[in-house]
Design goal:
Layout: H1 2-12, E1 17-23, H2 30-39, E2 51-58, E3 61-68, H3 72-75, E4 85-93, H4 100-111, E5 120-126, H5 136-142, E6 153-157, H6 166-178
Pfam families: Arf
GO molecular function, one term: GTP binding
Protein name: ADP-ribosylation factor-like protein 5
């Protein structure tokens, strides 16, 4: 019943909606992250071809979240989704040491895009539950996050399968895009 009232309320009094794009290399956990936040559960996923989009409501803040396919051939189309973006979530497979430099290049390419100049950046250091995972500090150094000067950014350790850290990261985005702490 509460969900019905909430949907009805938003239909009568639409709130501002904030757009988030979720990027990362294939198999980083982008879709798992999206659906863990959206449904609160892990769903069976296939490699994303194109995008998935869902609406999330977090502490009365509405987000339109676009999960973009991470295969090499799809990354060139990411820019078509950037217009109107308030926040970028870069999901990193913390165990994928072999390809993190590729993600660094992709991250700095998208940060230079004119449609993302006012976007905040959340880096999810995913798969922290695995033994060989790089720490958030290692990922920060490897991605040269401290060199990002024109965007607010934050790195958040997480595990998309359990949900650990996901809402902490979403809370950080909510605070940055609204200018106030979520209630």
């Amino acid at each position: 019943m509460g969900a019905f009232i909430s949907k009805f309320w938003f239909m009568l009094f639409p709130a501002k909606e904030y757009k988030i794009v979720v990027v990362g290399l294939d198999n980083a956990g982008k879709t798992t992250t999206l659906y863990k936040l959206h449904l609160g559960e892990v769903v069976t996923t296939n490699p994303t071809v194109g995008s998935n989009v869902e609406e999330l409501v977090y502490k009365n803040i509405r987000f339109e979240v676009w999960d973009l396919g991470g295969q090499e051939r799809l990354r060139t189309s990411w820019a078509t989704y950037y217009r109107g973006t308030h926040a970028i979530i870069a999901v990193i497979d913390s165990t994928d040491r072999a390809r993190i430099s590729i993600m660094k290049d992709e991250l700095f390419r998208l940060l230079a895009h004119e449609d993302l100049q006012n976007s905040v950046v959340l880096v999810f250091a995913n798969k922290q539950d695995l033994k060989d995972a790089m720490t958030p500090a290692e990922i920060t150094d490897t991605l040269s996050l401290h060199s990002i000067k024109n965007h607010d950014w934050h790195i958040q350790a997480c595990c998309a399968l359990t949900g650990d850290g996901l809402y902490d990261g979403l809370g950080w985005i909510a605070q940055r895009v609204t200018g106030k702490a979520p209630s």
